[in-house]
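Cross-check.
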Amino acid sequence: MNTTSAGTTTPHDPVRMIMSTPVAVLDVGATLREVAEELTRNEIGAVLVADASRTGLISERDLIAAFSAGGDIAHRQIGEVFTSDLVWCSPEDAIVDVGAMMTATGVRHLPVGNHRTAVGIVSARDILTILVESTRDGSRHAKGTAAADAPPRPRR
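Predicted model, tokenized:
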């Protein structure tokens, strides 16, 4: 995640402040095994999928759905399972607005760009981190509680 100095990003800042770059992109002909390898190698939850006419996204949720459907998923191509009807956000959209958009649409990853060309990707975790930090900072200043000073939980 690209951020400014710790604690300075607020929910009202543009999402470009927290989007991940560069964006991982795979060809629509790549296999689901290649997707899993890309997600694991980069410790990410989704990659963009591109071909000559469209941009899509494949996430760990898509891999789980393909796995639960059975068959030889290692050799299935992304084109069989990826999401092509994407919700996009602009780099200038406020972080809190992007979080609301994700909640309303039920997605956990949004490409950041112009509906064809992605300049970044933002995850629900990115949004949640800023919202929690903002709340924690507000609680610390307002109440001085021990809970507000608790260290963050480790990533799983």
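Helices lie at 32-42, 60-69, 95-105, 124-142. Residues 73 and 117 are 28 Å apart (CA to CA). Passed to J.P. for a second look.
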